[in-house]
Amino acid sequence: MKNIILRLKTSDKNTMALFFIAVFIFIVMGILSPKQFLSLTNLQGMGIQFPEFGILSFGMMLAMISGGIDLSLVGIANLSGIVGTVVMLRMGGGIESIPFGILAALLTGLLCGIFNGILIGYLKIPPMLVTLCGLQLFTGLGLAITKGPALTGLPEEFGNIANGTILGIPITVILFVIVAIVISYLLKSTVYGQHLSFKGTNEIASRYSGINNLKVIIITYGISGILGSISGILMASHYNSAKSDYGTSFTLLSLLIVVLGGTNPDGGKGKVIGVTLSVIVLQLVSSAFNIMRVNSFVKTFVWGLILIFIMVITSLIDNKHTQRKVKKQC
């Protein structure tokens, strides 16, 4: 615990605030409803739920660090899950079909991400337009494949990916931690991570410094697509079926998580630890809402309010910093 606090002290204020908010919510709900909130069933349930949108949020974070956005992630997730499901069913739906289904899903996510990256980087179409259209395109493709109803008949072993545990720890949590470590390594310890941050901070300066912005964009959206497909695999495994409208609220939720986690909407800045803590905070809030039996529509409304509030506060703080710099220069 001491090591965690020491690391947070060396981090930014936003990360520290998220950490203490998470602790505060945990303590309050532990006092108000200890039997329900602190039960092993509820804790494992939270562990199963948050990696689905948490891994999706890492894809959104990478896109925003690059100075863009990826609104197509939910569409990629569902299409990937559907393609993987079709492959497994065509192979007989046995346990031996699972690796091929997962591979097909990951490849689908990669191709969708590269498609977005080419339109954004090569044709210079704004990321918001490309990915918003991509959301509709990928969702439509998924709907065309399924014809509407969910695809079922998947192997029971496939359902264990999202619903199983190892030593009491949900497999999804282990997968989330692995993904977080890999993304953190990419951002901190690779040339790609440096180029991504530089490109997001100043695209023109990045280009004149010799960085291949097109390559950075395609890699970024390709990785984002893979992360979307991983989320799609988890959703399909969770329900042991695939459908084109799973996780419809995850687009707003991933945006909220990334902004709340300290990622700059204008690009150039973003931390895995911030997004991770943001995921935990929102999962704790969501669990608290469920225990207090708050309507799901109210929950979505609250997410929207929080997102607007954070963006307003961030904008005001940035304006104050700009004004101070101007005064110092004068």
Automatic annotation (TrEMBL):
Keywords recorded for this protein, A-Z: Cell inner membrane, Cell membrane, Membrane, Transmembrane, Transmembrane helix, Transport
Subcellular localization: Cell membrane
Topology with respect to the bilayer: Multi-pass membrane protein
Key word Chloroplast present: no
Secretion signal, residue range per the UniProt entry: none
Membrane-spanning parts: 15-32, 53-77, 97-122, 129-146, 166-187, 216-234, 246-265, 272-291, 297-317
Keyword Transmembrane helix: yes
Superkingdom of this protein's organism: Bacteria
Name of this chain's protein: ABC transporter permease
Organism the protein comes from: Kineothrix sedimenti
